Amino acid sequence: MTKYVLLLPEALVVAGAVFMLLLARFAPSRYRRWRTSLPVLAVLILLAALAVELRVGADVGSYFGGALLVDRFGLFVKAAVLLATAVGIAVADWGAEDSISIGLAMPMLAAFGVMVVASGGDFLSVWAGLELAGAAGVVMLATRRPDSALRLLLLGTAASALMLIGLAYVYATAGTADLGGVHGALLGVAPTLPLAVPVLVLLGALIYRASLAPLQLGAAHGLAAPSPMSIGLVTGLAAAAAVVAAVKVSVAVGAVSVAFSPYVEIVAALAMAGGGAGALAVRSPRTRIAFLAAGQTGWVIAGLGTQFRGGIGATIFLLGALVVAATAAPAAAGAAGISELAVSGLGTLRRARAAALSLAMLSLAGAPPLAGFFGEFTIGAALARSGHFELLAVGLLGSLLSLVAAIGTVRVLYLQNPPEEGRRGLVALPVWTRFSALGAIALCVVIAGYGVFANPISSLADQGAAALGLR
């Protein structure tokens, strides 16, 4: 197998995104004629890339001078991201999106960015993939909310600057930008304060992009709120890129983890408790999804502080469940997710979509026996093993609050009567199509299947942790 075949999944995703953009720009008549079929084409491209990745990603090796790593960690993350993007596009209500071409191309480019981060072997590739995913989110937001896009751009730029400062200092200390080289160079370095501070700045910037920046989108109110796919892109794919980068960087600088772990635990506790409390305090399903995602991201951050194979493996396992639910849940809610009244009785009117939204939110809340529960359970076991019982207690409290909030939305979906059309306002129900119904069913199967096959998936995640150099 040549090294160029290993790039085929990424090439398929990029080619699909470029095709969507060029078709709308240079062949408008064909674009108008094919626009209803473009989401189907995008899903087929993503599934083809997933099939190729499962085949070629099973090999292990380093290519292009260490810039491309093919290992179990990359295989797990790429498979999860491709699957999340595919089900998100399939379940979306494309009548609620401003531009189908941008709405399809940007998630695919964001998925490509996460794939670059997952397979990157040095600082440059990790940074480039992270910025690509973030830029895709900015472009997607700008189609409806330029102000939110500008705010996200400014926040992302500030976080990127802090990240580069931390990377530069780590590079100066280790003498190499290769992640494996950094890990080896820092093994004999004492965890001093001058080294710990830049590492804290670096990880803090990544954690900020993963857990805090998406909340500004969920907090947007009014009829001009961001489109459902843009929220799914930022809270799911763009946040996943930051989490994957944080996992790789934290393992690379794991020799000084004793210096930064206490601060990471504080941030994780704030995210877990704050996400659960925020989800319980709001009523809008869209805002609640953002808080639930932030709370589950707190569990992922908590796993970063363990710095042993079981803990990082549990983190990778939960990351897969998080990216699927956080990407697809806003798309499943559609434009109606802006208001609790608009989704009342959705279980009667759009049964498949309501089931998909319910399972996604319950998974984000950590409800058993869904994907999120098993991920939080394995991280909780790792925290108990490492003696962080106080952090585990905060996490359990946050999960309880999140679960109560998610059940509140499920109650509205199934137990409240649909409002009269005059009371629903200008927010229309998601349009029923055979494709979106199949996408909703697929999302239900993915989330439920992640829990049913938790043992083999957890085994692959553990192999991913081993591929990062943990024992």
The biggest beta sheet reads: 2 strands, antiparallel
Topology as a string of helices (H) and strands (E): HHHEEHHHHHHHHHHHHHHHHHH
Cα distance spanning the termini? 29 Å
Radius of gyration: 21 Å
Please, how many domains?
A: 1
The helix fraction, in percent, is over 70%
Strand arrangement, largest sheet? 1-2
Number of strands: 2
Description:
The model has no long low-confidence stretch (mean pLDDT 86). The protein is globular. The protein starts with 7 loop residues before the first helix and ends with a helix. The chain contains 21 helices and two strands. It has helices at residues 8-26, 28-34, 38-56, 72-91, 100-119, 123-142, 146-174, 179-185, 193-211, 215-218, 228-252, 257-281, 285-304, 309-333, 346-349, 351-365, 371-385, 389-415, 421-424, 434-452, 454-467, and strands at residues 61-63, 68-70. It has one domain (5-467).
Write a concise synopsis of the structure shown.
The chain is mainly α and 471 residues long.
Topology:
Blueprint: H1 8-26, H2 28-34, H3 38-56, E1 61-63, E2 68-70, H4 72-91, H5 100-119, H6 123-142, H7 146-174, H8 179-185, H9 193-211, H10 215-218, H11 228-252, H12 257-281, H13 285-304, H14 309-333, H15 346-349, H16 351-365, H17 371-385, H18 389-415, H19 421-424, H20 434-452, H21 454-467
Helix pairs in contact: 1-2, 1-3, 1-5, 3-4, 3-5, 4-5, 4-11, 4-14, 4-20, 4-21, 5-6, 5-11, 6-7, 6-11, 7-9, 8-11, 9-11, 9-12, 11-13, 11-14, 12-13, 12-18, 13-14, 13-17, 13-18, 14-16, 14-17, 14-20, 14-21, 16-18, 16-20, 17-20
